[in-house]
């Protein structure tokens, strides 16, 4: 195909490489070391520090095709996707850049030549817009042959770019394309309709704006351009909609086959297909770059995108998980340009399926509640869904807010956002009070110290002792001149080998020795970047401001913490090798006696996974690999493969910790010199701490050895209790478990006989012509309830059976059975969802049988009573 997306992508790189530009790979969708951005949203993001003058590169011209996402924060196109033919969450931005090299003349010449000669666009259909005061740009456009009648001037809103309120900025010039009379809209740029659309923006960064708003010329003006591949492909391929270009047609064809609905038929189904096609690309690229669904930050944006796509699948009649199957189409179409998609394909498929299944469970539970709320709102003559109802759907049933809004819009309603915000704030206040959390108050003494004393020099990477001067003493948040025996204080030194808590590693402990006293340090913290506080108790004599001290770190505690910190890096690398590149550190604790590592992953680890991680880490320990530390620029570190924890803020120079051929991370903590010093590694537990976040807790060295000894002692004790040798322990336990299950089965059979002995007729009511049997059978598990329901159904022949039990573990079991002759009108699954919600649970099933669990036995009777009303309503529909 002429001007295919692949050809345009390659051609853009090739054209600018021929004009001495360095071809730079796309940076990840997660901004590198830039906490100001949620996602990479423009080609210039990776060059931001260059434009700000904070760093330099070995090249002065660059060309990129950058992966971008606009679905959160300031730049958010999510709500428009599907409703227009040009908005997207994920898109590719073509860009060429000059860092103080060429300027307007070359930028304009390059853009015009690429579009009219390389791509072959009709120059008579191109328009150019410039900043109203940019006479130089006007002259340059005319010089290359653009008619003055095709050049239009606009103000700052349309044709002046700035990074922020202050800093680099400048006029910009945009190239627009006239799509012809077949497309609605005016025939000039920046007017109504989509007939004339912008395709390329050339930013001439030539000024620096100061705090007063005054513009000062930059000594080395630069160029930053951006052009969306999706729009260029549509224009170059002669189609009106981006979705009709070859970037989307394979996806739309796959969606159409899956739904059994032709694309191009009805606007309602076309819109849903466009949403799904766009969102599939965003999901695939986000997960490939390491984002997994969660309830906060980037993970929450991804969750919204998956769930929005899944909901539009339902609008097309697709009720089971399907998105995970279609991610393969994204990989097939874009894997050549982005090889990382192929290596992450399995992870993307599994993670997408898991999120779809969670959302289906949410919808199954919440949709009947939402429908009931909408019906009641209309019946009351209102057009606004109350904030209380919205909050209940959001908080209790896990409905994303945007989906509630879309559902309301489809039913001709709006939702009370102000009332919802009020309910959210009330919940936060209750959580703060319940959890004992209060707003952290400022510590004036610490604030004063940070301004009064100079920066403490840390020398603890190379030694554990130093001669230091006591610069300040803080007692009860007040600065004092001295401290006596028994006083609890925090002190500041000019030089210290004590590592301050940071990066998950706890602070050092040790002693400070003076001529007249001793301070036992129990913790070391860094409340400000330049301030290190040593917290402890004066155990002897007194210490005074200004005196010289001998400072000694507890070497045993430090070494144990170092073992665990190096082991944490090994665990991270082992997890990524085993599970995939989506594994990212979410948090850690490195203490002398244990380590904790939180990481992104979408399912629990199997026993085999845990064994493999332990084997890998212990293998690196046995190899006794060298652990090297280097200081380098953040760009060099990332370019060399170091893992940076995106969202963290890094300085220009960073410390890189490397375990040869296995692990490389940015890290300021203390480490072993060789992995063999760790001794032994043992995982204690693996658990989930949030959706998409897993936690490993482990021990090393003597702690791991103590754990082994404890396990051996417990095995010996079990062996003694069961009076068998250790080799027979497992077989003996299995035998006892079988015997126990036999006894439990006998007990259930006895309970069933007792429950079924009551008269069926005495518990049956006739509701709207239907026999409804409701019975409470406490103590029964779900298996017992099913057996009882089978007996009752056989006696009823036609009717509804609803059973409930308060179980022995303090929970609720619910079961509904509907005979086949009634299941077309009365569905067991519909009944069980409402009943389950009453007892704080969830459930589902088939039209003829459904079951649920709950948490609130006190509401069991009410849940069972609801069946009569639910059956009557079902009969009336």
UniProtKB/TrEMBL annotation:
It comes from the Bacteria. Its cofactor is Zn(2+). InterPro entries: aa-tRNA-synth_II/BPL/LPL (IPR045864), Ala-tRNA-lgiase_IIc (IPR002318), Ala-tRNA-ligase_IIc_anticod-bd (IPR018162), Ala-tRNA-synth_IIc_core (IPR018165), Ala-tRNA-synth_IIc_N (IPR018164), Ala-tRNA_ligase (IPR050058), Ala_tRNA_ligase_euk/bac (IPR023033), DHHA1_dom (IPR003156). Residues 730-760 form a coiled coil. Residues 3-710 form the Alanyl-transfer RNA synthetases family profile domain. Pfam families: DHHA1, tRNA-synt_2c, tRNA_SAD. Its main location: cytoplasm. Its EC number is 6.1.1.7. This is Alanine--tRNA ligase. Catalyzes the attachment of alanine to tRNA(Ala) in a two-step reaction: alanine is first activated by ATP to form Ala-AMP and then transferred to the acceptor end of tRNA(Ala). Also edits incorrectly charged Ser-tRNA(Ala) and Gly-tRNA(Ala) via its editing domain. Consists of three domains; the N-terminal catalytic domain, the editing domain and the C-terminal C-Ala domain. The editing domain removes incorrectly charged amino acids, while the C-Ala domain, along with tRNA(Ala), serves as a bridge to cooperatively bring together the editing and aminoacylation centers thus stimulating deacylation of misacylated tRNAs. Gene3D superfamilies: 2.40.30.130, 3.10.310.40, 3.30.54.20, 6.10.250.550, Bira Bifunctional Protein, Domain 2, Threonyl-trna Synthetase, Chain A, domain 2. It comes from Nitrospira japonica. One of its GO terms (molecular function) is alanine-tRNA ligase activity. Zn(2+) binds at residues 565, 569, 667, 671. GO terms for cellular component: cytosol.
